[in-house]
Design goal:
The structure holds two protein chains of two kinds. Helix content of chain A is 37%, strand content 19%. By secondary structure, chain A is an alpha/beta fold. In chain A, the strands form three sheets. Chain A has a seven-stranded mixed β-sheet with strand order 3-2-4-5-7-6-12, sandwiched between helices. A five-stranded mixed β-sheet of chain A has the order 9-11-10-13-14, sandwiched between helices. A two-stranded antiparallel ribbon of chain A has the order 1-8. In chain A, strand 2, helix 2 and strand 3 form a beta-alpha-beta unit. In chain A, helix 7 crosses helix 11. Chain B has a single domain, classed as Thiamin diphosphate (ThDP)-binding fold, Pyr/PP domains (Rossmann fold, 3-Layer(aba) Sandwich), CATH 3.40.50. Chain B is globular, with a radius of gyration of 19 Å. In chain B, helix 1 packs across helix 11 and helix 4 packs across helix 11. Chain B contains eleven helices and eight strands. Helices cover 41% and strands 11% of the residues of chain B. The chains are: A alpha/beta, B alpha/beta. The interface between A and B is large, with 42 and 45 residues.
């Protein structure tokens, strides 16, 4: 039932919900569990789902993240496709055993090659004063622990396309929605087969001088920085990674081998963040192509303050990205 | 209604196989190092076998890692069990296994074990939730030890399972020991079944040395679950004969700790004819001995399986 080429402007979280609703219509094994999902979700992603699919498939639960994810793992093992919205990625640490041992390892450690579909929605990043326990960007954990896939949609269309891909994926997916984008609007394809393939990044802006690898909240800031840099004659290629597991090495290396400079920009903490791994792998795979060291522009290694101005000072600004662009060209 | 004698014979056979595996693994670990540590289940065989006998083949079992009575009870053969313990390709995991079991066979409803102890509560609720949605009539059983009844997910899971009336059974093997700590040193009640009151579900205490008692309690709990009446908590009072792991010197345990121990095999044998008992025991021993010899002859895994099954199709 494709809707061909029609587009509609909608909120990022609504697009995520649209992808979910479309898949629920064709796959009766999908159910949604979380706090407040039956009344539309804290941030509106599950709006209307309970009305359309009933309270058997769109289910509220108590404040109990370990139960939610553990239950998803058990349901997944018997062939269901659970969708758990944890509200804030920060809370996933309470379900560490359930995410990283049970979802990530159950198939492997029992030696049975069966599909395990599950989507854990982990809203990440600052949203304006949510504080140090509601603002973390901890997507790197899904890169560190084996057995999971990790996606980070940076706009409404990807929010839909990656949700649909995640729901069709026979492996557990950590779906990091971006808090600061939740209520931003974008053009979204209404085609019910619109999929953004997991593991495929995309060039958001072509450029010859340096490759800037980013995702999530930092895509828009990087694009803004690239416009400023272009006015100074510096053409930065912006790659939106879209997935962190697996990473699109074909796309990354094609670009780096052409520009010979690489920067990684993310909101997550700098130390042992995704940029550390990406930079390490670039130098392992393409050291002799590089003209300069790889730079990282990332969140400060501090708990995020609640005060809005301080909070913003802890994550990369457009100016910092511009400065990094100038710096890498000066090396 | 008196219990069927064929069923008693079958339970005795399975318990004898589990006991024979215990003995052969114990003997093996005295002379050879295995990967990981075997956690002996001697003395507790009536629980896993008795409860499994009350489940249907397609019911979901999520077990804990002491002994092998649950796997044998639910239909796994000694070969794949011993294969994992000895780290051979003939193991249920295909060669990744070791002393801590991760046996699973979904065709037998054996869903696996979580080695972060007490971690299967929510997983069992997941399969129970699936059964409720699908109306497939299956029951899910979460098996655990008394020590892990203090886990947060014990509570989180039962709060929801009882509210939603999931077809779930909590089955506690209470051997009164958490590795070397006495349960009552860390728990306000000696009876885990007491916790059921808060959830408004039945909390049943049974003699865990008597397979028939465990069977009957589980059968009733399963019938409640299938009728849509929700979960039951069964507590089987049992005895851990050996240490926490094979080779555990057990300095923490009193010399007379086993003074009142009743061997579950002897308890069940009281309901059987002597010659039947002897025949079944001898056959079980022979079956396990043959499986052990085949396991010794089986090759260890090739390193090529290190990435196998990490992702689906890999």
């Amino acid at each position: 039932m494709a809707n061909n080429d029609k587009m509609e402007t909608m909120l990022y979280n609504a697009a995520m919900g649209l992808g979910l609703a479309e898949e629920m219509r064709t796959n009766p094994d999908i159910f949604v569990l979380g706090q407040g999902v039956a009344s539309g979700g804290w941030f509106g992603a599950e709006k209307g789902l309970a009305d359309e699919f009933g309270s058997d498939r769109v289910v509220d639960c108590g404040i109990c993240e370990a139960f939610e994810v553990g239950m998803a793992a058990g349901a997944s093992v018997v062939g269901m496709t659970p969708v758990i919205n944890l509200g804030f990625a920060d809370f996933s640490l309470i379900a560490g055993d359930e995410i990283y041992h049970k979802l990530g390892k159950w198939r492997y450690m029992h030696g049975l090659n069966v599909p395990m579909s599950a989507v854990i929605i982990l809203p990440v990043g600052v949203m304006g004063g949510a504080g140090p326990e509601h603002s973390n960007s901890i997507e790197v954990l899904g890169m560190h622990f084996p057995g999971l896939k990790v996606v980070v949609p940076s706009n409404a269309a990807d929010a839909k396309g990656l949700m649909k891909a995640a729901l069709r994926e026979p492996n557990p997916v950590l779906y990091h929605s971006i808090q600061t984008l939740s209520f931003t609007r974008g053009e979204v394809p209404l085609d019910s087969d619109y999929i953004v393939e997991i593991g495929k990044g995309i060039v958001r802006r072509p450029g010859r001088d340096a490759t800037l690898l980013t995702y999530g909240s930092m895509v828009n800031r990087s694009l803004e920085a690239a416009t400023t840099l272009a006015n100074e004659g510096i053409e930065v290629e912006i790659i939106d990674l879209r997935s962190l597991v697996p990473l699109d090495w074909e796309l990354i290396l094609e670009s780096v081998n052409r520009t010979h400079r690489a920067l990684v920009v993310h909101e997550a903490n700098k130390t042992a963040g995704p940029g550390a791994e990406i930079a390490a792998q670039i130098q392992e795979r393409a050291f002799y192509e590089l003209e300069t060291p790889i730079l990282r522009v990332a969140g400060k290694d501090v708990p995020l303050p609640q005060q809005n101005d301080l909070e913003q000072a802890c994550i990369p600004s457009v100016d910092e990205i511009v400065a990094a662009g100038r710096h890498i060209m000066s090396l | 209604m008196p219990i069927d004698t064929t069923l008693i014979g079958d339970m005795y056979r399975r318990m004898s196989i589990a006991r024979a595996i215990e003995q052969i693994v114990e003997k093996h670990t005295r002379k050879a190092r295995i990967s990981g540590w075997w956690h002996p289940g001697e003395g507790q065989e009536a629980v896993g076998v008795g409860a499994s006998a009350a489940l249907n083949g397609e019911d979901y079992l999520w077990y804990q890692g002491r002994g092998c009575a649950w796997a044998i009870g639910k239909g796994m053969q000694p070969g794949p069990i011993l294969g994992d313990v000895l780290g051979k390709v003939s193991g249920a995991t295909g060669g990744k296994g070791g002393g801590v079991p991760h046996w699973a066979d979904y065709s037998l409803g054996i869903m696996g074990e979580g080695a972060t102890l007490g971690s299967v509560y929510p997983l069992a609720a997941g399969s129970a939730f699936a059964s409720k949605l699908r109306k497939d009539g299956r029951v899910s059983l979460a098996n655990f030890g008394d020590g892990t009844a203090s886990r947060g997910t014990f509570h989180e899971t039962m709060v929801h399972a009882a509210t939603w009336k999931l077809p779930l059974i909590y089955l506690c093997e209470n051997n009164e020991l958490l590795v070397g700590t006495k349960l009552t040193d860390v728990c306000p009640t000696a009876d885990i079944a007491d916790f059921a009151k808060g959830y408004g579900i039945p909390g049943i205490i049974v003699d865990g040395q008597d397979a028939v008692a465990v069977y009957e309690a589980t059968l009733e709990a399963a019938a409640r679950a299938r009728a849509g009446e929700g979960p039951t908590l069964i507590e089987a009072k049992t005895t851990r004969v050996q240490g926490h792991y094979a080779g555990d010197p057990q300095n923490y345990r009193a010399k007379d700790a086993l003074a009142n121990y009743r061997d579950p095999l002897a308890v069940l044998a009281e309901r059987m004819a002597v010659d039947e008992v002897e025949t079944i025991a001898a056959e079980a021993l022979a079956l396990v001995q043959a499986a052990y010899e085949e396991t010794l002859a089986a090759p260890p895994p090739d390193h090529s399986i290190i990435f196998k099954d990490l992702y689906y199709g890999q």
